Amino acid sequence: KGYYLENSGEDTFSNEEILAISKIILESRAFNKDETQKLIDKLSNQLSGNDREVVKELISNEKFNYIPLQHGECLLTNIWNLAQSIKNQEWLYLNYTTKEKKDRKYNVKPLSIMFSEYYFYLIAYIENKEEYPAILRIDRITEIKNLKLLIRKNLRTENLENIYNLCIQGLLQK
Predict the structure, then answer these.
(1) Cα separation of 142 and 1, whole Å?
(2) Cβ neighbours, 10 Å, residue 22
(3) Which residue, 18, 49, 24, is CA-closest to 36?
(4) Containing H/E element for 20?
(5) How far apart are the first and last CA of the chain?
(6) What pLDDT is recorded for position 174?
(7) What distance separates the 2 farthest-apart alpha carbons in the chain?
(8) What is the per-residue pLDDT for 48?
(9) Helix-strand-coil percent breakdown of the chain, rounded to 5?
(10) Which of 20, 22, 44, 73 has a Cα-to-Cα distance from 173 of 20 to 30 A?
(11) At 127, phi and psi to the nearest 5?
(12) How many CB atoms lie within 10 A of CB 32?
């Protein structure tokens, strides 16, 4: 005999919401197979036994045929750490691999994280190139170090929505 706590309040996801979020995670292909599996399992575990099985059945084909992107990188920790640096307004040192497979080293002021077309991007000003922000794919960041410097308040951080629409990699050109 066992017991479980059932929460049917407004603060939990409904079956429909968990199904929709699961499908978004699978179709985005943003995460490697392990991270995707863990996210889907944690969402599904919010449901009661019968509902969990229904959702698992509804997404079983997508899970079976899931093909992650080639980078294979774990992203959740980097996304969290970058978000914390944005919140705390800290400068970061990044080691970044370009699409041409060249290593670049940057000191950056992170502004925002966005998702578009399969990838998460970091929007950041590169030190001494602060006229235009850079858009860097998070899966190409190979090292992150916190420089423990507070960001100067006079750097422009407005109009991020315009940057989001560009979705290109690297520095923006005039």
Answers:
(1) 50
(2) 22
(3) 24
(4) helix 15-28
(5) 69
(6) 45
(7) 69
(8) 87
(9) 35, 30, 35
(10) 73
(11) -55, 135
(12) 17
Tokens of 30: 């943003």
Residue among 31, 56, 30, 34 nearest 43 (CA) = 56
Q: Report the amino acid identity of residue 84.
A: Q
Token pair of 63 as six digits: 């899970």
Q: Which two tokens stand for residue 168?
A: 């290109």
Give every residue of the chain whose pLDDT is below 50, as ranges. 150-158, 161, 164-165, 167-171, 173-174
The answer to whether the beta carbons of residues 92 and 136 sit under 8 Å apart is no
Listed in sequence order, the residues at least 6 apart from 85 whose beta carbon sits closer than 8 Å to its beta carbon are: 92, 110, 146
Q: Which amino acid is at 27?
A: E
Structure token digits, residue 160: 């991020």
Cβ contact 83:113 at 8 Å: yes
Helix axes 15-28, 49-64, angle to 10 degrees: 20
Place of tokens 């509902």: 51
Burial degree of 103 (CB within 10 A; 0-12, 13-18, 19+): exposed
Cα separation, 167 vs 133, whole angstroms: 12
Q: Are 59 and 15 in contact (CB under 8 A)?
A: no
Tokens of 86: 């944005």
